[in-house]
Input
Amino acid sequence: MLIRLTGGEVVDPVNGATSKRDVWIRDGVLADAAKGEKPDEIHDVSGCIVMAGAIDIHSHIGGGNVNTARLLLPEHHRAHQPRPANTPLSNAGWSTFQTGTLYAQMGFTTVVEPAMPPYTALHTHLELADIPIIDKATLAILGNDDFTLSLLRNNKSTAMLDDYIAWVVGSTRALGVKVINAGAAAAFKENVRSFSLDDVVPEYGLSSRKIVKSLQASVNRLGIPHPLHVHANNLGIAGSADTAAATIAASEGVPMHLAHLQFYGYGTGGKRKFSSEAARLAEAVNGNPDVTIDIGQVMFGQTVTISSDVMRQFSAIGNANPKKTVIMDGDGNGGGGIVPYRYKQDYYGSLQWAVGLELFLLIDDPWRVFFTTDHPNGAPFTAYPELFELLMSSDARDAKSTELNATALGMTTLASVRREYTLEEIAIMTRAAPAKLLGLKDRGHLGTGAIADVAVYRKGKDIAKMFREAALVFKNGDLVVKNGKVTHYRFGKTLRLNPPPDKAMVKRMQAFHEERYGLSLDWFTFPDSAIHREDPFAEVPWNS
Amino acid sequence: MSVAWVGSQPVSLTDAIRNAAKLLGSSRCPVFTLDADVHGTRSAIALAERLGGAYDHAMGEVLAREVALFTDHGGMFTTPGEARRRSSLIVIVGDIPAAHHDLLQAWAGSQPDLGDRHKRSWFHIDGADTPRAATFARKLKATPLRAEGQSLGSVLGVLRAGLQNRATAVSVSNFDRFRKALAGALFPVFVFSGASGEAPGLVMLQGLIADLNKTGRASSVFLPADDDAWGTALTSLWMTGFPPRTGFSNSLPSYDPGRWDIQRMIRDKEADLHVWMSTRGGETPPKGGRIALISLSKTDAPTPGAKVTISVGKPGIDHDAVSYSSRIGTFRAVPAGKPSELPNISSIINRLAEALPGQRALPC
Output
């Protein structure tokens, strides 16, 4: 099958300057212009922008906690219900099916679920497999489990830690490793209520810093393409900027990714002791080339916060809206909390909104700042089109600012920042840079040989509309969205690393599970066939 | 051996599929009673959506109670693995289904290796409305906490008040011992099920746990009344956004535990076709209501009253399965224990979908 997209403005910074040129797709892969060959399909995309399919590196789209949020909040689903469409279950509010549909309609073709507890990996993958159209990936959570913490406490060799992490990544079909408030979930079980970078987990005598540094080093040694994905301590509290700055400084020459930095952009200034430290954090990121971050932008309205940071979620119970929550002390890295929340245009909400935008606009390098709302924690991913508009138009920011709390905005630099993201910067931040960060060489650009994940947007003054309803979206060369509507389903792959397990580690794992849980290891592992989809996984190579 | 029947007559599987598809295609309001593993449930929900039907689980009554704890209230929970490893104080709440007795006995035979590592002690909160509960609790040497003539919900209320140093009109046996045990345990765990008592009692239990967490730590292990039913609830949630007792009116799913109570719909003749699934075997469709019945069940004989019966395999026995397991608090891949030729229910449902007008495959 040969497809030609003709007349469009191609925004593909990896492969050169923006220009009008044809894009060719041959059998699901981007190809050189076919001379003297008649295409099977020609799409006239004059007046449109052509980009690679977008990649979301941090969006909670599936797994135990997401599903518990659905269980806790059936009344919220009506608000998510779209107009009827023609594809199966695509009308089902906040379901896996709708997740794939809505992402595809915005031109997103790969999404990473960033928080998979190893023991519930099968559940996560069952959900991901029911998300249509897009490719998915997950990060395995480590850093609160007894096995990791015992290895570190007992000064076991780095090789043994590496073998364990490789086993976890392989057996859970993960693309990388995430640490969430390292050590805090373990400490919370012993009634510790606050936990900072240099605080110590009672049971193990280990600081959070030691856990983060050990995991970061191991991920780097193993050649896992995505650096350790760090959800730092003290999320959401006034003064958390100090923790974030200390965590950034702790990268110490080794790559590290900090998740949803907006939630750490708070100081203790002002009458309310809640102020913006975004400028300071942006400077810290700008000055440290080893660090990448995503934002976790807050947008206004009802959402639900979902996090494996159980200590933080427990402390947020009082802010639940509506007043019902689930707090789960899971096995090791599992568990977390579900706390519904409404971001209001009051002092606090306005400040959070502005902090996210400040970070977006003050961090200079679009290759190191990633476009997320930490769905659904800052806002549902369906708010992305409006967020693109805020980034690309200072007028849009000014207009929104007039609706917000002036005192809060006065505590920020936002009004003075006039930067507007260009389409090329958007393409870097949402395509090229995520592909590079995740080690996905086959996507994020429109060069020959890349998979044909292509998003075509009708150019217009209404930026949000442009990004909300892609004119065309191709997934692996298959036209799946036309005029902002999904035309048919296909099922993508879940991208994973597949390191060969160390035999001694497998034996150790067998003994550990039998001794500690009274169950054989096969209770916690699963074959690919358990997913019930044809070839549900695709392997991503390790860094050499 | 026959695996398909129209009425009481053995037929080929293809004929049975054709007959069942005809019934489905002409139904105005089909309802589905689910009892399958994850993949059977996925297919069944997709078919219900295709047909604009409604679905519930065979254990819908108790499942609805368990679901309501979350939809109406929430709570604090932990996993069986964490309870086993960390909790030196286990408090059984009311009646725990026999299917979970092995799990609790395994905890009784082990010692916590995390947290305070104290020798495990057991209590049992009992009510006048849970008469069978005490027998099993005695095997675990659990200290009873009960108040003469009071229901489980009342006992929980009295305990909660007592732990808050509030005066109560009735007293609970062994209360002081319980208070002391709570004070000495780093991570006490309350074990309950939807079968443990009525919804207000379960909410009271979560209130008690919330109180304990103001200054210390405590949590609960939820052991579903039926693992497969809970697995169906979780599957339904990710597929539709809603737990069972969901229907697809106007192509949109809606969750309404009253409106989509399948047994009520059958009784009130709101439904005109009942697709009854029972992969565990040995079950019969509930009595009451006389509407057309399609039976997809593990059986070697036609289901009485069914217009079409198709025999299907039992997940984890006749074929590989993915099922919820409360031993680990999540899904588990279960290899076939005794593989057979019986088809899995998912494949039958997919064949039914393909035999419907339009002949479209299901998305799962």
Notes: Chain A touches chain B through 65 residues (CB under 8 Å). Chain A has a mean pLDDT of 96. The domain at 55-75+110-436 of chain A is CATH 3.20.20 (TIM Barrel).
